[in-house]
Specification:
Blueprint: H1 17-27, H2 33-44, H3 50-59, H4 62-65, H5 70-73, E1 83-85, E2 92-98, E3 104-113, H6 115-120, H7 122-138, E4 143-153, H8 159-176, E5 183-190, E6 199-209, E7 226-231, H9 241-244, H10 254-257, H11 266-285, E8 293-296, H12 301-311, E9 316-320, H13 333-338, E10 344-349, H14 351-364, H15 367-370, E11 375-383, E12 387-392, E13 395-401, H16 402-407, H17 433-441, H18 450-453, E14 464-466, E15 474-476, E16 492-498, H19 501-506, H20 508-524, E17 529-538, H21 545-564, E18 569-575, E19 579-582, E20 587-590, E21 594-603, E22 620-624, H22 635-639, H23 652-667, E23 673-676, H24 681-693, E24 696-699, H25 707-712, E25 718-722, H26 724-736, E26 741-748, E27 754-757, E28 761-764, H27 765-780
Parallel strand pairs: 4-5, 9-12, 17-18, 24-27
Antiparallel strand pairs: 1-2, 2-3, 3-6, 4-6, 7-10, 7-11, 8-10, 9-11, 12-13, 14-15, 15-16, 16-21, 17-21, 19-20, 22-25, 22-26, 23-25, 24-26, 27-28
Length: about 775
């Protein structure tokens, strides 16, 4: 029945369990039977209202409260010498530079997923995923400087997969390009295990001066502060989005669930970002930044933003729903409270600053003239009383302790015993190793991502030193501007994203370790030192012990590897229930464990950043990392529809020492180019370097393994190019660091350039380049 026909409250304890379940499903609260009972008997101690059922369902969802994952996230190292804000606010912040006066300059990092919405409504789901992530960074007082995305789709031969890919990419571009933020990195994988549940994860970077940070909580002495809602008029779009993100994807409910997907307005989003950045400057000049709080409206809309802004500062709040500007007549109050309308922010402002903030948006930047109904409005206040109260007219919609609302529920889920390792290792002998290499280069998970990256704006803002696809990580110079001191303008920042679903399908723990190691390798081969990482932990149904085991193992893998490599986790999210119905029996199938990692690195001088492209002929090629029989989950195996069992198990001590040594040598100018060894093995890595430069190569990979395993094993390592006169010094330095560094061959000139490997591969660089350049497009058509 319509929301207006519901009674004001629901006496849960008078109902039997079947009736409670039916009621929670009909209201789409996301609450379980026991949670509904607990809400009445333990938290409120009275029958809950409709608004309270929906609010606690949202705040108590996996998406908001991390009720299954919270204990596991405590393993992460979230602090460090240069960490200013760890994983506890809307975005993390890490210091990357100091000027001559000792003032700090920082990078803001946010990482979110928008999986379920993108599976159902891919353009809007992906676009609003970008919008929400950008707002997380903006509300920390930062200038938004970069985007990246890491995408996973199903079988590329399926028409729906191609449509999803095209619409998701169009949605990311449709938001990222108009707001004027460059895309500098990203990942793309196709695997049939994502058939009914794609992954769309987005990373945003911002730049901020340390004395310009704004926090997403009410500051000290905030009793009586105004709550100012800024942005689009509230509508019903996205209502129930947070709860929907904590459901399995059921084909039978697709049409119903589409209503939980928000609608983007990138041009208004850009306008509010720019106006907010100017307001930051004004407040800073007045010395008032420390007196405000600022938060974006994401999951749960006005309700979650207001209660979290208040409670995280130790306060409560009163919100008057009738003061909210709305786009539709007769919107039910609980919808206005919890709808996830996009392009909205919430300020906590002392009354003496309220008119300044309101006039800035409404008059100076004329929000209503940019988008009909957009405005800044006071909708409530912060209170010393720690209760969260929402009213509409004479009715009290919500009245509960703010801390009870935000804490949600907590579960200790059953975890299955450790899963037995896979045993099968296929025996494969190639008739033509050169052809196999070409097949790998054209594989949709290896081939050039240019068709993807060229959809995005890669150079806007003029600070991109190495574009997406030009290297193992994007490189930015965020402080190369007259507004910053000369001594920090050359500082470079790198960004990369990584995860191999095939590794994780074999071993959830080692696969998570490998995702962090891959991000580390992609960072250090640019010459940058890793400074922080974020993760989107995407897994199946936590109510199933096997899936909870995968999550527990994956979280531990990320925690162990990041701690050993000394890279703090400062941002991220958890996305569970990534499952979809499959087959006539409507059985649920989960995605493979998917810890999506993003890593930020720092170069003291961006001008020394390395790319994979060879720089000349006659130079020495060196290999770090022995080639091992670790082909499990490899692209080579996938060509034969095999998964295998033995995935790479890197020695973290060796990887760490090798990476830091490479950074030192890069700073000294002793390395000409470098590339990490990952998908496709060293054969693919060397081929990509030749393709990027036009130079050929002659190489012998040492080892006693079958030649295909030498060339296509995805054991971790790097390939480096040095001038002949530097080779001895470079080899010696790695040896002193306890790292094996082997000379494997040389580069050759561009005249009739060829890729020659171990006397079994001899193909023209031009042929490899064409195969590599057209591979993804050929599959998508």
């Amino acid at each position: 029945m319509p929301a207006s026909d519901h009674p004001d409250s629901f006496d849960i304890i008078t109902m039997d369990d079947g009736r409670i379940e039916e009621l929670m499903n009909s209201l789409r609260t996301g609450l379980t039977v026991q949670e509904a009972k607990d809400l009445q008997t333990r938290i409120l101690k009275r029958p809950p209202t409709l608004a309270e059922l929906i609010l606690f369902g949202i705040e108590g969802s996996e998406h908001c409260s991390y009720k299954s994952s919270r204990p596991y996230l405590k393993q992460f190292t979230t602090e460090g010498m240069d960490v200013i804000v760890g994983a506890k606010e809307d975005a993390g912040i890490v210091r990357v530079a100091r000027d001559a006066a000792g003032k700090g300059y920082a990078i803001v990092l946010s990482h979110e997923s928008h999986n379920h919405p993108s599976q159902l409504v891919p353009y809007e789901g992906a676009a609003t995923g970008v919008g929400g992530n950008v707002r997380d960074v903006c509300c920390m007082g930062a200038r938004v400087i970069a985007l990246a995305d890491d995408l996973r789709f199903g079988d590329i031969s399926k028409p729906r997969t191609k449509w999803l890919y095209e619409e998701v990419v169009r949605g990311i571009a449709g938001y990222g390009n108009p707001i004027g933020v460059p895309s500098v990195a990203g990942g793309l994988q196709f695997d049939k295990s994502y058939e009914g549940n794609c992954l769309v994860t987005v990373v945003t970077l911002g730049a901020v001066e340390e004395d310009g940070i704004i926090h997403s909580y009410a500051p000290e002495n905030a009793d009586g502060y105004d709550l100012i809602l800024v942005g689009k008029p509230t509508d019903s779009s996205g209502f129930g989005g947070a709860s929907f993100a904590s459901f399995q994807l059921d084909d039978a409910k697709k049409e119903v669930n589409k209503g939980a997907v928000q609608e983007p307005n990138a041009f208004l989003g850009r306008h509010i970002i720019r106006s907010s950045e100017k307001l930051f400057e004004i407040l800073k000049e007045k010395g008032e930044l420390h007196r405000v709080g600022f938060k974006d409206l994401g999951a749960g809309g006005i309700a979650c933003a207001s209660v979290e802004l208040a409670e995280s500062g130790g306060y409560g709040a009163v919100v008057d729903i009738d003061k909210v500007h709305v786009a539709e007549e007769n919107l039910a109050p609980h919808v206005v409270l919890c709808a996830e309308t996009q392009e909205r922010y919430l300020w906590a402002s002392p009354p003496d600053l309220t008119s300044l903030i309101m006039d800035h948006y409404n008059v100076t930047y004329a929000l209503g003239g940019v988008s009909a109904g957009a405005a800044a409005r006071v909708i409530g206040r912060i209170t010393a009383d720690t209760r969260y109260v929402v009213t509409s007219g004479a009715k009290v919609l919500v009245d509960a302790p703010a801390s009870d609302v935000t804490k949600g529920f907590l579960y200790q889920r059953d975890v299955a015993p450790a899963l037995p390792p896979l045993q099968k290792e296929p025996v494969i002998k190639e008739k033509n190793v050169g052809k196999t290499l070409l097949d790998i280069l054209s594989h949709p998970n290896v081939a050039s991502r240019a068709p993807l990256y060229n959809t995005y704006d890669k150079q806007v803002q003029g600070m991109v030193a190495q574009e997406a696809g030009a290297g193992d990580a994007g490189v930015l110079t965020p402080f190369d501007d007259p507004r910053y001191p000369a001594e920090i303008r050359n500082v470079g920042i790198t960004l990369t994203t990584d995860q191999n679903p095939r590794h994780n399908a074999i071993d959830a723990y080692q696969g998570a370790v490998n995702a962090v190691v891959e991000a580390w390798c992609n960072t250090v081969v640019t010459g940058a030192r890793p400074v922080a990482l974020s993760d989107c932990l995407c897994y199946g149904n936590p109510e199933k012990p096997n899936h909870m085991r995968q999550f527990a193992d994956g979280a531990k893998g990320v925690a162990d590897s990041s701690r050993f490599l000394e890279v703090p986790v400062i941002a991220g999210n958890v996305s569970l229930y990534n499952e979809s119905s499959k087959g006539d029996r409507n059985e649920m199938r989960a995605i493979p464990p998917s810890p999506m990692i993003a890593m930020v690195g720092k170069l003291e001088n961006a001008a020394v950043a390395l790319s994979p492209a060879f720089t000349g002929s006659g130079n020495t090629l060196l290999m770090i990392g022995e080639r091992k029989d670790e082909c499990g989950g490899s692209i080579w195996y996938s060509l034969h529809d095999e998964l295998g069992a033995r995935i790479p198990e890197p020695d973290l001590s060796e990887i760490k020492a090798a990476g830091l040594t490479l950074c030192d040598l890069t700073a000294e100018g002793r390395i000409l180019s470098a590339h990490d060894i990952s998908e496709g093995g060293i054969a693919a890595a060397l081929s990509e370097q030749a393709i990027a430069s036009g130079y050929g190569l002659e190489v012998i990979i040492p080892g006693s393994l079958q030649v295909e395993r030498l060339l296509f094993s995805e054991s971790f390592g790097f390939v480096m190019e040095t001038a002949p006169e530097e080779t001895e010094v470079v080899v010696k330095r790695f040896k002193e660091a306890g790292v094996s560094c082997v000379e494997i061959g040389r580069t050759t000139d561009r005249t009739d350039a060829r890729i020659r490997l171990n006397s079994v591969v001899d193909i023209p660089v031009s042929q490899a380049a064409h195969t590599y350049a057209t591979g993804l497009t050929a599959h998508i058509r």
